[in-house]
Amino acid sequence: MPERTVTALPLVSMNAADPTNTLMDKIVNLCKRRGVIFQSADIYGGFRSTYDYGPIGSLILRNVKDAWWKTMVQVRHDIVGIDAAILSPSAVWEASGHLENFTDPLVDCKECNERFREDQLDDPLSCPACSAKNSFTEARAFNLMFKTHAGPVEGSGHDVYLRPETAQGMFTNFKLVLETSRKKPPFGIAQIGKSFRNEITPGNFVFRTREFEQMEMEFFVPPEQADKWYQYWCDQRMKWYVDLGIPEDQLRLRPHDQDELSHYSSGTSDVEFLFPWGWGELEGIANRGDYDLRQHSEHSGEKLTYFDPDLGEHYFPHVIEPAAGATRSMMAFLLAAYDEETVNGEVRTVLRFDPQIAPYKIAVLPLSKKDTITPLANQVFDLVKERWMTDYDETQNIGKRYRRQDELGTPYCVTIDFETLEDQSVTVRDRDSMKQDRVSIDRLVEYLSERLR
Ligand code: ATP
Asked: Which residue's C-alpha comes closest to atom 13 of ligand 1?
């Protein structure tokens, strides 16, 4: 094995001319080069702040969502999943309060016509684009929901909205889920799906986009148990990120100050990640009281209470909501996994993903395209493909192929060489240590199962 000198990459660059963007630039560049994330409508010049997930990115994003679904739904008998519609009528958003309150304060600079969120300005008197002083218009409440219309007629009564969060689907289906799933509080309804917000200032790559994916769960509890469950979910959700490889020193749980809380919330905490520009939210965990069920009950006329047969009474369950972003979390996983080290005088870039997040778990790499090797390589691919997402790559020299797999974060490369023809064994290379083991083909699945979750 070659000697290795390892240099740690600073999370925030020390480059004075470019103080925050070095790591981000590297991630954005890698994402484009390796088919992770592309600018949407790229061939038409790109559609601002909208992104497409390529062959590698769609696998990573799916893995983030699958890991969430497994933790939140599959291994629990007290949470069920749904998949609700993206389009919904104004009545839903009237009841939820989004029509009235889901707004950001918008200001325009009268000098350069740029628009900003007033609450995000460092100095509310100075334009960050043109440095003009006192050039802002009065703040206007700008509703972030995308509105469209259903059917051929436009106008009020036909307005529909693209959901700005998935949560309302859990509240509007509460009664039907309760009746059909035979659950009782405490129990949860979970959902993963696209949400849309007409953000005034999208940016920082996929951190804030107008179309994004959320992973949300509404946990319905007897009112007196709300505080206990709120604490439980704060702990569980922090643990989820740590278990999937985000270093603890890049994560924190930040309780909201009293003035940040919505009027119905008795507690909200954000799971925050240390992005290159500072701490940013990955997920909010809120103790929402009975606000949502009560609102929908009043507006729809449906009784959204739970009848407790032991107490002999109806009550509105309280709701604890862990609301995470799938696309934003994926970005955090990419940033946390990115590493560079110097190996024999050359920089090796490696994504040290947890195997659950890694797009491919294995890469099968035949050393040559010769007729003698290809059938054997296909045989190895067939052995592992049902169980693990596996890449098959027979182009370029083996060193370049290893580097490519390192940049994709593939935990194990399996190389089939001329010796394989003799001894029915393959070389398995570990992504992190670069250590190579010779493993007989009939033991390969067992060998990999011991190392991959
Ligand atoms: P922010 O303060 O960053 O706008 P928020 O508090 O409005 O976020 P929530 O409504 O709590 O966000 O949504 C839950 C999660 O959905 C967020 O923690 C984030 O991960 C994700 N999310 C929200 N808005 C966006 C967006 N525009 N782009 C990508 N992800 C988003």
From this structure: 323
